[in-house]
Amino acid sequence: MRAVRYHEYGNPDVLRITDAPTPEAGPGQVRIAVGAASVNRMDVKLRSGAMASGPLRKPRGTGLDAAGVVDQVGPEVTGVQVGDRVFGAGSAVLAERAVLSSWAPVPDGLSLTQAAALPTVAETAGRVLGLLPDQPGSVLVVDGASGGVGTILVQLALRRGLAVIGTASAGKQELVRRLGATPVPYGPGLVERVRALASHVDGAADLAGHGSAGELVELVGDAGKVVTIADFSGSTEAVVTSGSEGRSWDTMAEVADLVAAGELELLIDGELDWSEAAEAHRRCESGQATGKIVLTVGAAG
Ligand SMILES: NC(=O)c1ccc[n+]([C@@H]2O[C@H](COP(=O)([O-])OP(=O)(O)OC[C@H]3O[C@@H](n4cnc5c(N)ncnc54)[C@H](OP(=O)(O)O)[C@@H]3O)[C@@H](O)[C@H]2O)c1
Question: Does residue 274 have its Cβ closer than 6 Å to ligand 1?
């Protein structure tokens, strides 16, 4: 089969469509004929080598989130059949065939493009919300409310009766307001700006990793109610959720149903052919995208 892979770490141009071994679904997995795959910040960090401890030893695929049609069901898997439309998470999914370890049916009314945009950001939003105060009326500050994780987290929090103050760049203040949160600019002085809007803050999420965790702890007054998903420097005493502990894939299906029902807005920046994977990575790391970037694979996207 063909897959987008890279043979060395580097800039987006290391991404190439090449021949690759077709993966097999192992126990608890399904394999799909991929229709669409989305780009996450993690894909960019992995490809650049920012997370590597040494040179790449063999070609590596890219992509964590995909949607497509099941073409192989692994051992010990029930409730899904060849031919079903599913979306979910795996590794090296930007390929003609991909193995998913976590998946859910694509609801009627949702395209493969929309479904492929969801897994990582929906799972992360649900996991972070699960670590924050959840009493209706609680006030949350979300740093990075305009991003892939943030736009979903904001909407889920509001549905649960929480109030949200969300940070964004100047150009995305209106987006945050449209989603139902109170927007504020991010950056230095955040404590004062939030205090001008709210007499107290019950919990906060750092979804950006730009060093706000200390200010968020100051606002909440309790480091145990501040969650970061992007600052693992340990420079503050904020609660840290790792990418692998306590995953909540149920949120992926919940969000897909809400999007299909028109009750949650899923932002898609653009759809490109998978031959434009390098351009998609460039757009992701530019910080200019509004919503997810999705690559269509073959004719099924
Ligand atoms: N630990 C985990 O499990 C996990 C899971 C998923 C993602 N992540 C990480 O979480 C981060 C967010 O992911 P994402 O998919 O939401 O990324 P994204 O779509 O690129 O969103 C990034 C967000 O950060 C904001 N931002 C940019 N510069 C900022 C600054 N100086 N101060 C505060 N906010 C700033 C952006 O606002 P504007 O667009 O308005 O500039 C946007 O809201 C990434 O680092 C990603 O790798 C971690």
Answer: no
Domain 123-240, CATH homologous superfamily name and number = NAD(P)-binding Rossmann-like Domain (3.40.50.720)
211 CB near ligand 1 (under 6 Å): no
Q: Can you count the helices (H) and strands (E) in the chain?
A: 9, 15
Residue 292 CB neighbours (<10 A): 26
Q: Domain 2-118+266-296 carries which CATH code?
A: 3.90.180.10
Over residues 171-215, the pLDDT tens digits come to 999 999 999 999 999 999 999 999 999 999 999 999 999 999 999
In angstroms, what is the span from residue 41 Cα to ligand 1's centroid?
8
The whole-model pTM stands at 0.97
* Domain edges within the chain: 2-118+266-296, 123-240
Is residue 50 classed exposed, middle or buried when 0-12, 13-18 and 19+ CB atoms within 10 A define those classes?
exposed
Q: How far is CA 287 from CA 64, 75, 146, 252, 293, in A?
A: 19, 41, 11, 24, 12
